[in-house]
Design goal:
Radius of gyration: 37 Å
Structural class: alpha+beta
CATH topology of the largest domain: Heat Shock Protein 90
Order of helices and strands: HHHHHEHEEHEEHEE
CATH class of the largest domain: Alpha Beta
CATH architecture of the largest domain: 2-Layer Sandwich
Low-confidence stretches: 313-330, 374-385
Number of strands: 7
Number of domains: 2
CATH superfamily of the largest domain: Histidine kinase-like ATPase, C-terminal domain
Largest sheet: 5 strands, mixed
Mean pLDDT: 80
């Protein structure tokens, strides 16, 4: 299989590469002209800059032709190839350069009488042989290094893309895990009302249909504006109102500047569901549910606080969003949220669950603030750990 070469760097385009060599030659010409003036020699600036400019024009052209036609050899050459093929090529490189240069400057060197072409070639070849060898091998290993660097960067990009694809696949799997979990619990709630309140069950079915429509419209999008997440939560809370009518007083407090903040899709619903399943469902009246979202500098902070009886949450929390093993994160929902937060934000997020008094438990989440109109090159920024 033919080895594919990385895309050519822009500075290797002949319109950039060869003029750059000519500019380098003119700098050498300026240095030599100033030194000669300082030493008392007077030479025309025209011939000085012209000779250096043409010499480096030839060197730049020959070097670019090496890159253009000998790149596979330069990249793959081993020690044997360098000794048997590249070394003779370096001699030919210098010889061709001198043959072309001598054609343009028949009167040089100025301190010598005019000489036949081949005599001038041999004279200049002896004077410039070492310089030509140095330039050839610098170009040779420069081109080799450029190719290695490009391949290294391509490998890095490919690795990053694979990590992103893996992380996105895991996020998709977590979303697939969460949706059936939510649907199963919602159907159980509707089923429990079928024998006691048919109208409420019917209303819950309509609201469930709205939630499923919202979920389908989102598709596989992982980050959405907070206002869309709250629309989902409002419908979900209306469903719960059908089941827990008159038993729960709820309050939602969201900073106005957060409506366009990007948040993981369906990350609040499991927290609210957990509040009902393990707290509010345990009491008969005067239940409280508080959902808050505030900005803290460059982060956004969410909390869900609820009342309940017989709470089994251990006081405090563990670092990096791990809840005490006694609670086990209460099943799929919270574990799912923790996993998705880690995939999205790495160590820049926090997840905390704690019992704040005998009848209240609070779940808090912090992650970086990001507006929905910001450019997003990739859904995830971190792979799984």
């Amino acid at each position: 299989m033919t080895r594919r070469h990385p895309a050519e760097p822009i500075f290797m385009h002949p319109a950039i590469f060869i003029p750059s060599w000519m500019l380098l030659g003119e700098l050498f010409a300026l240095q030599e002209w100033m030194n000669l003036r300082r030493w008392g020699f007077h030479i025309g600036t025209g011939i000085e800059f012209e000779s250096w400019g043409v010499e480096f024009l030839i060197l730049g052209t020959l070097s670019w032709l090496m890159w253009r036609f000998l790149r596979p050899f330069i990249v793959k050459a081993n020690v044997t190839d360098i000794l048997l093929r590249a070394l003779p090529l370096s001699v030919a490189f210098g010889a061709v350069k001198e043959m072309i240069w001598v054609l343009f400057f028949r009167n040089l060197p100025l301190d010598r009488p005019q000489m036949p072409y081949w005599t001038r070639f041999v004279f200049n070849w002896k004077a410039q042989c070492i310089d030509s060898q140095i330039i050839f091998w610098c170009a040779f290993f420069l081109f080799r290094g450029i190719d290695y660097y490009q391949r290294y960067r391509e490998k890095e990009r490919a690795t990053a893309q694979l990590e992103t694809q893996l992380a996105n696949a895991k996020l998709a799997a977590l979303r697939m895990q969460l949706n059936p979990h939510f649907l199963f619990n919602a159907m159980n709630s509707i089923s429990s009302l079928m024998r006691t309140d048919v109208d409420a069950a019917d209303s819950m079915l309509e609201q469930l249909s709205s939630l499923l429509r919202i979920s389908l419209e989102r598709g596989n999008v992982q980050l959405i504006p907070l206002r869309e997440e709250m629309e989902f939560i409002e419908v979900y809370l209306s469903m719960q109102d059908q089941r827990y009518a008159g038993r729960v007083r709820r309050d939602i407090s969201i900073d106005s500047e957060l409506h366009d903040a990007l948040v993981p899709a369906m990350f609040l619903q499991p927290l609210v569901e957990n509040a009902y399943a393990h707290g509010l469902s345990k009491i008969e009246k005067d239940g409280e549910l508080l959902i808050q979202a505030h900005r803290k500098a460059d982060k956004v902070s969410f909390s869900v606080t609820n009342t309940g009886l017989g709470l089994k949450f251990a006081a405090g929390s563990l670092a990096n969003g791990h809840v005490d093993s006694a609670s086990n994160g209460h099943g799929v929902g919270l574990a799912n949220v923790r996993s998705r937060l880690r995939l999205h934000y790495g160590h820049e997020c926090s997840f905390e669950m704690k019992q704040i008094d005998q009848s209240h438990v609070k779940v808090s989440i912090d992650f970086p603030f990001q507006l929905s109109d910001e450019a997003q090159g990739s859904i995830t920024r971190y792979g799984a750990e």
